[in-house]
Structures
1.
Amino acid sequence: MMEVPLFLRGIFVVTGKNMRLYYTKPPVLMFGLLFPLFMFFAFFVGRHLDLTTFFPAFLAMMLFFTASSVGPLITPWEKREKTYERLLSYPVTQDSIILGDVAAGAIFGIGISLLVWIASVFFVPVAVTNPGLFVLAFILGTLSCAALGVLLASPASDSPPNVMIFSNLVRFPLIFISGIFVPLQQMQGWGLALAYCSPLTYLVDLFNAAMSGTSAFSPFVDCSVLIAVSAGFILAARVIQKRNMMKGM
Amino acid sequence: MNAIEAKHLVKRFGAVTAVNDVSLTVREGETFGFLGPNGAGKTTTIRLLTGVLSPDAGDVRITGIDIHRHPLDAKMQMGVIPESSTVYGDLSAEQNLHLSGQMYGMPRALREERIDEILSQMGLNEKRRNPVRTFSKGMKQRVSIACAIIHRPRVLFLDEPTSGLDVQSRRLVIDTIRRMNEQGSTIFLTTHNIEEANTLCQTVCIINKGKVVAQDSPERLKKMFDTTQSVEVSFDRTVTRDLFAAEGILRAEPYGDKWRLYTDNPDRVLKYLVGRAERESIGIMSLTTSGPSLEEAFVHLTERA
């Protein structure tokens, strides 16, 4: 039996299909590109903030929005266009579809965030003190955020607008409690407790560790949390989507 | 070897049992028709057979491979045209076919060769680079079929492939099914069109309320009901149903500009019609008798369950 190569090929082809079909869809451009830029202008521009200090948080926010914007769109869109059943009838499994969706979100997040980082180098004097950790932050950040996006698309729905609204209901609060606009060191009480619950907090912290060399947690803790939440999001998406399939298409 | 083997399939959605202990066998190279009224469980069965849904009980083997244990190996053997499922509208016909070929692991050169061949057969060569969303329903269905046969599957599943198509597209689809079967593919076809099943299929299986009620060749199924033959008659003027209130006529139904009279004694009905027409000076335009139809067998089998 040759199931493993077929499984890997399924992930690869589904990823390619997603990249071709969904990167230019209006909801992805709106919630993945424009929103983080608007948030940047709203909170960082004209407030005499030290952009160098806040840049890791901005990069984490950009990565979070871009990587988590593709996943919520794919499955509802395919269900609405009635292509999902055809996709399932190809030599792919639900697991390869989920991993293909995560990969498409992660590649989108890496691509756009890298562009933003490269462009920013010309305007903001950002340093990377630990390049290895910086690369790791990119990979684990995009993976966890893309996995969150796929999890948000898992409830049974064939309405992309409903899923996008639901995903924003989850995503927006996360950026306010994750040390992006208020550094973790300045948080206290409930705010700090909430920040500990957000996976984005650990991504911001990891970027801080990689770029400025200072962080609230050890990079090992940040990486462990991001790996654990990525696995948790993917497993939860798998369980929900399998449960949905037991109920029918 | 059997191309498809399903044993004791059960699928429940809440309190509803959509598929109830369905077993069927399709021999390699056969065209197998799967008929049933709306809501009988045809589409759920086809989704179980193609691995789209998992059964609550029972198992399915495609060319001997258990589809729920080895879904990818089993799916490599088949092509599927799901009911009302479309291809990607934002992609062109050619891109959809490339995507489908990639899913089946076909190398680029082979894909291109097959795409040229299939698009010509399907009459889509001129519009191969146009987005599929601009296509008519018939053209979309042709792309859908092309995507399912690009890898020359050993088993081809078609769920209502001709539903809602114009005559030209329907003929093209039927010709493609015939050609695939001649080339060795096993065909599993669900359809509402009884005549289509009658002319295409070597075996017909009828499902009703989630249960298989009959599985045999169309001719044998018809013979199960050879007490119901019919006489078709048309007159040179409009007549009412009252004309057919006679002994030996079990049922009279308008059939286009004709009447179809169901009977277990065609000789008696013919003599009655000729005599009555002569007495009332009605001209008979046409008069034919026919044996029991597959449609009649279908109606009997699905009504009595």
Note: Chain A touches chain B at residues 1-3, 6-7, 9-10, 13, 16-17, 20-21, 81-83, 85-86, 88-93, 245-249 (CB under 8 Å).
2.
Amino acid sequence: MSNFVPEAGRTGIHVRPAHFRKCEVAARLALDAFGLNNMGARLEVKTFIPECVGMGSSTTGVVASIRAVAHAVSAYRGARMMPAPHLQATLAVAAEHASDSLMFDCTATTILFAHRIGKIVRTFNGPLPQMHILGFDTGSARDGVDTDRLPRARYSRDQIAAFGCALAVLERAIAEQSVALAGRVATFSAKMSETAVQNPLKKPKFNELLRIKEGTGSAGIAVAHSGTVAGLIFDPALPDLRTRVAEASSAIAHLGFDHFRTFSTPY
Amino acid sequence: MADRLYEIVGAHAPLKIVSLPPENLAAIDFRIMKVFPAFNIIDAGIRNGEIGRNRTIVETSSGTMALGLAIVCMHFGLKLHIFGDRAIEPPLQRTMEDLGAEVHLVDAAASDANVQLLRKNALLDFLDRTGATWTRQYDNLGNRLAYARPAEEAIRQFGKIDALVATVGSGGSSCGLAHYCRAFFPEMKLVGIDTFGSVLFGQPASHRDLRGLGNSILPGNLLHEAFDEVHWLGANEAYQAAHRLHRETSLKRGPTSGAAYLVAKWYTQNCPGSKVLAVFPDDSSRYEHNVYDPTWLNRHGYRAPHAAAEPILVHSPLRASGGWCRFDWRRRSLADVMASSHS
């Protein structure tokens, strides 16, 4: 949540806490986009999202800052003006070079988002199936990942050729509302992150995690491609869901990873 | 250029998945399947600098790979020399020549056991003299990688695939499609179809009546460990299967497509509930005057009542002899299978 108070006659953005630099840049760019190049501001950022683990903390801050600017400008001009999501995406990518897609509401459709260009590449006709996610942090014992400094992963010709197939499986997962198929795509994606030919972001004990997935009837494993969080995907319709999740949870704790939270997505 | 070529590839091989009876059976109906490996090999060669402008391309083939290359080389403005045998009949030769290819036929009957070797020697001799680029469909990884797009389309239109039934020649389509499908469905069964006298799955090279599948040399693109089951079909079985495919589905395709239909249908009936995808690599244009001509069939002794209606389970590839045989390959290497198969 960003609380933004416009101050006429000043040029800079004063952000607090001071390390939210991306939010500061985003607020500046948003003001510029409204044509208020000479307008300064004081920006206060409050967040409960853990930073540097791949939970989208920076994009959350950036998008909240852009929206806070829009609210403040609306109040200043006496007319509601909120940039459309695709414009928020353009501003976010300009502010932080690569963004998550959370400026878009994905409860009715699923999007494929080019995170460095800030554009929707493809819209799938429907939401992701409802999934039960057991989330945890594979970086518990270490420092987080500075996603800005992360070298870009590079994939082989063979891997890139398979990406199209992954989208085809995802399309079927959405059409059939199949957690099993969505899980297959997530697991494939996690394996690609492990085996990229350049700069793979390997998760500690990945093979043990795959075994836990198999052993507990999880549909798939999802990992942050620029972070340390991961999650096991379960079909909420499983009759013994609670037992399986509890089993997986204790096995993961046994590996030394902090349990984060379980949640349901996309709603 | 690239976009236009994708359209041309799509026009020759539209990647249509056709649902067939019974339920849970479908075919990827390529028509000219080999435009995919031809395009991928040439396109990758140009991108990585191995194939320069005004380069001459050479390949040995008597079937659709030759045609696929002729189509692709014509669009890239590359000169193509094909070394084939008498399986290239005048209409196909004219088609390729119209597209600017030069066709060299070695003097051997198409069914001779060593025909691939003779074609290859003629090609090597030409390479020595000219320094052309050999696309090596049998060993070029670009052949297998070309099947990512077809696999994508198969999954998109058919969903999860439980079994893939494909004829095997270079190993490109069978192993390529299986590789990409198994990235998501590792338990998917791969059922390969070969013919008697082909060396692909452990038989000694000998005279082969059925062409379009099988091989007299072992291609590098064939990964034996990918196969769960192997079937061998005779020429009569494949020819009658092509007729059956036509009569039952109205799709008039070549005998390799017929072979895939026959085995896929058998597999579907034996594993009810499995979603089975058959690979149809070719259309019927080369077979109107032979396989689809009753007089020709009669003259050569190919009669429907003689065709095997069921496979015989054999316990060694060396035991497969005539009609329709199947063998439980179980994802083993060729050496492993042969070591445990002293009949």
Note: The longest strand of chain B covers residues 189-195.
